[in-house]
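I had to read the description of the data format several times before I understood it. For illustration, here is how one protein appears when written out as sequence plus structure tokens:
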Amino acid sequence: MSRAQPSLQILTANRLADGAVVYLTAAGTWSTEIRQSVVAREERAASALLARGQKDAEAAIVVGPYLIAALEGAEGPRAASLREQIRAAGPSRPVADAVAAAVNLAYP
């Protein structure tokens, strides 16, 4: 019988000051670099990360903290889902703006 690999999780939120996507680090700070995030390898650790995120949300540092599935990468953790990979890569709006400008299309 094979054992399932443990579910790795990291904590993400948006920084209240500017809306940037941020990740909680082992130092207890927030970074825009997902590879600097602290990884929870068990449910208890994940619960502790989420509690820390809630505390920072109450202190108006971040908004909407939540846990995401993570994968181990050569350069540090990375997001498991496509949605979170897109969030980690940064804003897509400038790309959409450039495409819209190229085809002379305006959108709100």
Helices lie at 43-58, 82-89, 93-102. The CA atoms of residues 51 and 101 lie 43 Å apart. Residues 8-102 form one domain. The chain is about 30% helix and 25% strand.
